[in-house]
Amino acid sequence: MTTTTTTYHLRAVTDELAARTHLGATEMKNRTFCGVNLLVKGDPRFGGRYKDAAFTASTDLETVDCGACKRGAAWKGAKGGKYAAPEGKPKNAEASR
Ligand SMILES: [Zn+2]
Question: What tens digit of pLDDT does each residue of 5-19 get?
Answer without folding.
Answer: 678 899 999 999 998
